[in-house]
Design goal:
The protein is of the alpha+beta class and 146 residues long. It has one domain: 2-Layer Sandwich (Alpha-D-Glucose-1,6-Bisphosphate, Chain A, domain 4). It contains three helices and six strands, in the order αββαββββα. Strands 1, 2, 3, 4, 5 and 6 form a six-stranded antiparallel sheet that branches. A hairpin with a 2-residue loop joins strand 3 and strand 4. The chain is elongated, with a radius of gyration of 19 Å.
């Protein structure tokens, strides 16, 4: 590699790194209905009961590649599940909260990562993928999605 191509490579890498930093918000914790940078991510209302939604959440987490359920439980009109995905010392965590609401249930999801100040959009992708899989599972169970 000559000096000119080395400089060109350095410029390309710097531009790419700058684009990556500007393409996504600088954050590593995203929650439905609470992260203004992702206002499209909102809690989901389902017509299914708390028990049926909790079962679907647990099954969906079990089928989500890379994530493993590390805790969960229910009581007082709600339930919460926590799943983790590890890349060695780097951990992503999904927390799913379910509340009993007016003949159905409300699901909110939080995804956070333990590495650095920026997740490059991964937490939002985790939430979107989880909710899409949960929607499909509940539709298949004929519970319906609002």
């Amino acid at each position: 590699m000559n000096v000119t191509s080395g400089r060109l490579l350095a410029v390309v890498v710097a531009v790419g790194a700058g684009w990556a930093l500007l393409a996504w918000p600088i954050l590593n914790d995203v929650e439905t209905g609470k992260t203004r940078q992702y206002d499209d991510l909102t809690p989901r209302r389902y017509r299914s009961s708390l028990a049926a939604t909790s079962k679907a959440v647990e099954q969906t987490l079990g089928a989500t590649p890379g994530f493993r359920l590390v805790g969960g439980g229910s009581g007082r009109g709600g339930a919460e599940f926590v799943a983790q995905h590890s890349f060695g010392p780097l951990v992503e965590e999904l927390t799913i909260r379910i509340q009993s609401k007016e003949g159905g249930s409300l699901v909110s999801v939080r995804s956070r990562s333990s590495y650095g100040p920026a997740d490059f959009g991964q937490n939002a992708r985790n939430i979107r993928a989880f909710l899409a899989a949960l929607d499909a599972r509940l539709r298949a169970a004929r519970a319906g999605v609002d």
